[in-house]
Design brief:
Blueprint lengths: L2 H6 L6 H14 L21 H14 L14 E5 L2 E5 L16 E5 H5 L12 E3 L2 E8 L2 E10 L4 E8 L7 E3 L4 E7 L2 E7 L1 E3 L4 E3 L4 E8 L2 E8 L3 H9 L4
Parallel strand pairs: 2-8
Antiparallel strand pairs: 1-2, 3-5, 4-6, 5-6, 6-7, 7-14, 9-10, 10-13, 11-12, 13-14
Amino acid sequence: MDDKFLYQLREKPDPEFVETLRRKLALSQPAIPIWDKRWRPAFSLSLATPARAVVLIGLLLATTLMSVRPVRSAVMSFLSRVGGLSFEVTTDYPGDNSGDETTIESRTLPLNEAMALFPYPVHLPQNVVLEQEVSVTEWGPGVSHIFLRGQTQQGVRFYMTLLIYSEPNGGEIIFPDSAEEIFLDADHPAALIRGGWNYDTKAWDDAYGTVRIKWVLDNLLYDLGGNGDNLEALLDVARSTLP
């Protein structure tokens, strides 16, 4: 007697028995949520205990607050509003996932000519010294990004960018816990951001103490930056733009 003989004697199960067994096995399996592959955790969860069920429910609720850009599908991120502005918060360095890079040349214009590019009132800082030559980058018809430098009467240097405000999907990409809400006055919230993405290390870096203050005024987005040691002076510069 050999294995081939035993295999030939194997009896096929009754079809009705097979169907009954299949239904019982299906009913015995816990309900598994449908996960997008981008969100699949590195571990499995079972509903065998209430504690694990709570964990699974928490994960499902968390995913409703998450937003993932297609180019960074492997890393989860979420949207947040700080100081009335939208941000996409993630630990993933955005520069390596931007696809093909496009270089847009900037041009230098006198300060007054650059400000005339905006269809809205421009509220420049008061009681400061501004450089009269500014850098202008035009992203498209009527979409200008203006970069200027200046210093306070006490010699505190700062830089500022201005552009027409729009509510993008996700907004600026920042690192978790790097932004907090502040108020320039009772009616004007702002976002205070500490640090920035480091091109060399491909990580968020606040070692140099850089801070930025972002706020919206009359349809323009103001982004003021400088050294965090001079935060109070920078806040004074920001407040001087308020009408």
